[in-house]
From TrEMBL:
Domain FAD-dependent oxidoreductase 2 FAD-binding: residue ranges: 7-382
GO biological process, one term: 'de novo' NAD+ biosynthetic process from L-aspartate
Catalytic EC class: oxidoreductase
Lineage: Bacteria, Pseudomonadati, Pseudomonadota, Gammaproteobacteria, Oceanospirillales
Protein source organism: Vreelandella sulfidaeris
Residue ranges occupied by any Fumarate reductase/succinate dehydrogenase flavoprotein-like C-terminal domain in the UniProt entry: 428-510
Superkingdom of origin organism: Bacteria
Catalytic reactions of this protein: L-aspartate + O2 = iminosuccinate + H2O2
Enzyme Commission code: 1.4.3.16
Gene giving rise to this polypeptide: nadB
UniProt entry keywords in alphabetical sequence: FAD, Flavoprotein, Oxidoreductase, Pyridine nucleotide biosynthesis
Function, in words: Catalyzes the oxidation of L-aspartate to iminoaspartate.
Pathway stated in the Swiss-Prot or TrEMBL entry: Cofactor biosynthesis; NAD(+) biosynthesis; iminoaspartate from L-aspartate (oxidase route): step 1/1
Name this protein carries in UniProt: L-aspartate oxidase
Protein family (similarity comment): Belongs to the FAD-dependent oxidoreductase 2 family. NadB subfamily.
A GO CC annotation given for this chain: cytoplasm
Length: 529
């Protein structure tokens, strides 16, 4: 028998995981599993900033109302109010930790840090660190984590599953090290902070996005997955088929950037009174339509009219990166396309991050809290990470010894193997192509049926491949395919167009807004049909 490795096991080291670790480490022992690829994950690449009511000229009700409008009828009002209300304190916590937010230079301003505006917001309420907020927050929190004696970091493991006792409670997780040895990490409480599912798609806004593996780990223990069909596509990702993904921040449009068609004409003002500052689902569909009508495969995002001084001041990271790709954004418009960016659905939790599974919590993008509804409003993501990580920390501290440090013997694992990566590359490439073609910005009944058929064939091919599921990469790919199938099933159940889910067969909304909910039982039931 083994005793728990730590009081709290946190899987994932983005903003949510790091915040939770710091908030509880003075009270409980923490093991933080932070794979090397977390440095390329969504948190670090969040450019725009964090939405919160900070200026005396803003108010909580306005932020709440803007969020509810963007969520298109599917936000849970209690979750929205909880998040927005706790936002200012979360920002102050980051300031106290040393995050170098951009100061306001206007002496007449009523808040010491610069606040920008993004799509869906009716006020300037986005605090930021130039145009690299995620990097600034992650680096600051990492530095704090490294100095805390009660936090043990593990970056040598690929976690592939959760441990469960015969009472159904989560008892930790297991994974494989670089030497192909299975390792079990037991804990009184396990928290998933593993990110979203943008990696199911071909074009994404981060170099190494998650593919929903953490969601499927939770589902395997009995957790519910809610609103998987609402995958947000950021309207403006740099278009460069030969280069890596790079997000062009919403703040570029917030500061006055214009979207242009291939003839150099603006198209958003004719579609929505908010023009380029309409919610992301509206802008992404508009860009997609322009791309379909055009011949270039992209549209243009133009900020030349802002002037060199403003561009250098507000967007130094974007300026430098585009220059490295041969684009001078002070003299040239930026070619952009929509790309998979954020999962509005995920593991169902309460306001403290607790799932349906005893001792299992989920925070950040991997969780469904009810905040985003059918469409996430810009810069509410890092806000959610902070607020719910801090709420989860309070709940775990209050729990204290409610979950005793009982002994638990993890089940034996079959020997791990490493197959050539090329074995899995084709399956993953085909999965992403199917999702991008059939389960993307605009969907159809026929397309979803086609996706279901081909994804099932890919999953069968993988599971019948000798030794595939004994390879950690193969196991994670199986989880990605399972989540892709559940995403399609969720989309098929929604006979309407709402928020991020737009289908040509059901272009209108239903009168009643209802969240979707699926479990592993639903996947199993479909598989035998």
């Amino acid at each position: 028998m083994t005793t728990p490795t730590s009081d709290v096991l946190i899987i994932g080291g983005g903003v949510a995981g790091l915040t939770l670790a710091l908030e509880i480490a003075d009270h409980l022992s923490v093991t933080l599993v932070r794979p090397a690829q977390d440095d390329q994950g969504a948190s670090r690449w969040a450019q725009g900033g964090i939405a919160a009511v900070l200026s005396p000229d803003d108010d909580l009700e306005a932020h709440i109302n803007d969020t509810l409008i963007a969520g298109d009828g599917l936000c849970e009002t209690e979750a929205v109010r909880f998040t927005v209300t706790h936002g200012p304190a979360a920002i102050q916590w980051l300031i106290d930790k040393g995050v170098p937010f951009t100061p306001e230079t206007d002496p007449a301003a009523r808040y010491p840090y610069h606040l920008t505006r993004e799509g869906g917001h009716n006020a300037r309420r986005i605090i930021h660190a130039d145009d690299a907020t995620g990097r600034a927050v992650v680096d600051t929190l990492l530095n704090n984590v490294a100095q805390h004696p009660n936090i043990t970091q593990r970056n040598d493991l690929t976690i592939v599953g959760l441990l469960q006792d015969n009472q159904g409670a989560c008892r930790g997780a297991y994974g494989c090290d670089a030497h192909l040895q299975w390792r079990s990490l037991t804990a009184r409480y396990t928290v998933l902070a593993t990110g979203g599912a943008s990696g199911l798609y071909r074009h994404t806004t981060t170099p190494a996005p998650s593919s929903g593996e953490g969601m499927m780990m939770a589902a395997a223990l009995g957790a519910r997955l809610v609103n998987l069909e609402f995958q947000q596509f950021h309207p403006t990702c740099l278009y460069d088929p030969e280069g890596p993904a790079f997000l062009i921040s919403e703040a570029v449009r917030g500061e006055g950037g214009h979207l242009l068609d291939e003839y150099g004409q603006r198209f958003m003002p004719a579609l929505d009174k908010r023009a380029e500052l309409a919610p992301r689902d509206v802008v992404a569909r508009a860009i997609d339509a322009e791309i379909q009508r055009g011949t270039r495969g992209h549209v243009w995002l133009d900020i030349r009219h802002l002037g060199e001084k403003a561009i250098y001041h507000h967007f130094p990271t974007i300026l430098a990166h585009c220059a490295s790709r041969g684009i001078d954004i002070t003299k040239q418009a930026i070619p952009v396309v929509p790309a998979a960016h954020y999962s509005c659905g995920g593991v169902a939790t309460n306001l403290q991050g607790a799932t349906d599974v005893t001792n299992l919590y989920a925070i950040g993008e991997t969780a469904y809290t009810g905040l985003h509804g059918a469409n996430r409003m810009a810069s509410n993501s890092l806000l959610e990470c902070l607020v719910f990580a801090r709420s989860c920390a309070n709940a775990l501290k209050e729990q204290g010894d409610a979950s005793p440090r009982v002994e638990f013997e993890p089940p034996a694992q079959a020997a791990a193997i490493a197959l050539p990566k090329t074995v899995f590359n084709d399956v993953r490439h085909r999965m992403r192509a199917i999702m991008s073609q059939q389960v993307s910005i605009v969907r159809s009944t026929a397309g979803l049926s086609t996706a279901l058929k081909h994804l099932k064939a890919l999953l069968t091919r993988l599971e019948e491949m000798e030794g595939a599921l004994a390879d950690p990469e193969g196991k994670r790919l199986q989880q990605a395919l399972q989540l892709a199938l559940l995403t399609v099933l969720a989309a098929q159940q929604r006979h309407e167009s709402r928020g991020l889910h737009f289908t040509t067969d059901w272009p209108q909304q239903q009168s009643l807004a209802v969240a979707s909910s699926l479990t592993m039982k639903d996947l199993a039931a479909w598989a035998v049909e």
